[in-house]
Amino acid sequence: MMKDFTFNVPQDIIFGKGSLKRLPELLEKSGSKKMLLISGPVLKKIGMVEKVEEIVKASGIEVEVFTDVEANPSVATVDKATEAYKKAGATSIVAFGGGSPMDVAKAVGVLAKYGGEIGDYEGAHKVPGPIVPIIAIPTTAGTGSEVTAFSVITDEARNYKLTVFSYELIPSYALLDPELVMTSPASVAAACGVDALIHAWEAYTSRDASPFSDAMAEKAMELIGANLRRFVANRQYEEAAAAMLSGSMFAGIAFAWARLGNIHAMSHPVSAYFHVAHGVANAILLPTIVEYNALADHGRYEKIYNYISKEKDPVIDFVPKMLVDEARDLLRDLGIPQHLADVGVTEDKIELMAADAMKSGNIMANPRQSTIRDIIELYKKAM
């Protein structure tokens, strides 16, 4: 029997080559005459932040810029960006970059409107109402953060990645221009691309999945599965760039409504303790968790295999191990490390990481039930 579900997509999504130039039009729609642009130092260094500034200023809208966003952004960065927003007298935020600037923008959108500290809103549905209007422009394909209801911020005092989950966080507009992802280095394209695939994958196997999230997840896996390898091979391949960016967005919508699973629950502590890039941490955990969850499979593993496999002939006798092997092959093809030990993770932190992983709501959505002992064993296996 189909269980109850609800969904809406409460934002305008604009997709198209060269669509960055439509940013002033969206700012006009949001009623803003002064915006804070939140981005990162790399995009500033290569001149992309300046390009956005020029487009906006040419339309007569004032711009202030905050580009001190690091990977796995911290509570301190959120506080600094909130201060910059208030000082500027801004009335909207443009988040430009990967998941990190978007996480910060969402957090600033909450604090600028309702005050306090971001930790006050940790957990689900603590944001009391609409936040500052945000226009999200991804430059990676990617986190899907432009369409999700989550902000993940590192609390360095606790070595903990706190999550704020509220549908109020979904940006008012998502502007997806494939030209912006065509400058990614191969390593970034690989890590972000696998992250997007895992978003769709975990949403698809989630215990909270619905026909709506399934439709989004399946389309995401179709687009990403067929294009991830060739996009990493050549980011200038326009068709692959467009497929990856749209696939990442569909994956984001899928997990905004279906949650994720053990991969994400376990990757956040890896990033918090060892500063491993989020996409890399997810990717390394993928084969171990896929193997663990096989016991709960009810036909979905074969569908995922068909989306991501290099073999295009129909499978006659599928077994779940084929998907585990395919996941390992994918990481090898993309040049992503195979083990947690390869990225500096040490065994002495496993019990602490497992305790933090168990606090994640994603554990409850994972298809196979997990105890803290299970999580400890999975970390050890992924070492």
UniProtKB/TrEMBL annotation:
<dbReference type="InterPro" id="IPR056798">
    <property type="entry name" value="ADH_Fe_C"/>
</dbReference>
<comment type="similarity">
    <text>Belongs to the iron-containing alcohol dehydrogenase family.</text>
</comment>
<protein>
    <submittedName>
        <fullName>Iron-containing alcohol dehydrogenase</fullName>
    </submittedName>
</protein>
<dbReference type="GO" id="GO:0004022">
    <property type="term" value="F:alcohol dehydrogenase (NAD+) activity"/>
</dbReference>
<dbReference type="GO" id="GO:0046872">
    <property type="term" value="F:metal ion binding"/>
</dbReference>
<keyword id="KW-0520">NAD</keyword>
<dbReference type="InterPro" id="IPR039697">
    <property type="entry name" value="Alcohol_dehydrogenase_Fe"/>
</dbReference>
<feature type="domain" description="Alcohol dehydrogenase iron-type/glycerol dehydrogenase GldA">
    <location>
        <begin position="10"/>
        <end position="178"/>
    </location>
</feature>
<dbReference type="InterPro" id="IPR018211">
    <property type="entry name" value="ADH_Fe_CS"/>
</dbReference>
<feature type="domain" description="Fe-containing alcohol dehydrogenase-like C-terminal">
    <location>
        <begin position="190"/>
        <end position="383"/>
    </location>
</feature>
<dbReference type="Pfam" id="PF25137">
    <property type="entry name" value="ADH_Fe_C"/>
</dbReference>
<dbReference type="Pfam" id="PF00465">
    <property type="entry name" value="Fe-ADH"/>
</dbReference>
<dbReference type="InterPro" id="IPR001670">
    <property type="entry name" value="ADH_Fe/GldA"/>
</dbReference>
<keyword id="KW-0560">Oxidoreductase</keyword>
